[in-house]
Structure formats: C-alpha cells, structure tokens
Amino acid sequence: MSTFPVSPYVEVGGLVYFARMISKIRLHAGGNLAAGFQENLGIALDARCCSHLGVAYPALRTRVLTGGTDAEILAWSQQTGRTLTEHDLLIWNSFAQKRGWRDDASANLIKHKAAAGLGHRDDIETFFAFFEVDEGRAPR
Fold it and tell me: Into how many domains does the chain fold?
C-alpha cells in the first residue's frame, strides 16, 4: 500500500518539513512510499534541509532506519551537524514555507501543478500548499 508522507507543516523542535523528510525515509524503507516521491529522495527540499542542519542525507537516512522518534533524530542531527538557533529556525521555516513563490523553483511548481491537474489553481503559490492539496489534506 503506497501512501503519502506527513504534511510539511508538521514541526519537530520548531522546524518545519523535517518530519516529512523522516516520514518519506520510513515509508520508502517499508516499501510504502508512493512512486512519485522516490525519485526526489535526498534532493530538493530534503537536500536543503540536510544542508541547513549540516548533516549528509545518507547519514540521516541511516540514523532514521536505526529507529527513534522524530525528536530524537532531530537531536542527533543537531549533535552531528549543528545546533539550530531561533534565528536559524526562522530562516529555514520562512524559506521552506515560501518555496515556489516567486523564486527559482516557481517554474517547477507550475509544472507539478499542471501534471497533477491543478494548473488552474492560482491560489496554490508554494510547494507546501501544493503538497497539501495534491495529497488530499486540503480541498481540490
């Protein structure tokens, strides 16, 4: 049974998107990640989040698969990479939640919306909003 990862808005330690990345790793390892997500594992926002944390995606994946809660894995990430300050959280959360809105990812967002039959939805201005609608957590 393929399924979607958790919402990118779910916070772990004040950090958005991290829980989604962890969810994708777990779902993929269990053979339950929807096919469309598999080609993007470890790239795009996954790679940017890991870079912000100062950890390599393969190391994070290995840590996730050893078990533990999202909070424990974030703590490991901050011990392995760098500890995030309130300012770091603000920067990441602002960047991630606005990805696709008037930036270098806008054309990619338009492409994804069109492929999902959502090209007419001018109200979907960010990837986070797209994920919510495309994955059924917000109205189509």
Answer: 2
Give the mean model confidence (pLDDT) for residues 12-26: 98
Is the residue at 93 inside a domain?
A: no
Question: Which residues are CB-contacts of 105 (< 8 A; sequence separation ≥ 6)?
Answer: 99, 127
- Tell whether 35 and 74 lie within a shared domain: yes
pLDDT at 20: 98
Give residue 1's pLDDT band: very low, low, confident or very high (50, 70, 90): low
- Say if pTM beats, i.e. exceeds, 0.85: yes
Looking at the fold, whether 36 and 103 belong to one and the same domain comes out as no
Q: Is the pLDDT of residue 2 over 70?
A: no
| Domain residue limits at 10 | 1-84
CA–centroid distance for 44 within its chain: 9
In the chain, where does DSSP find H-type helix? 18-29, 35-38, 45-53, 57-65, 70-80, 86-98, 106-115, 127-134
Q: Specify burial of residue 102 (Cβ count, 10 A radius: 0-12, 13-18, 19+).
A: exposed
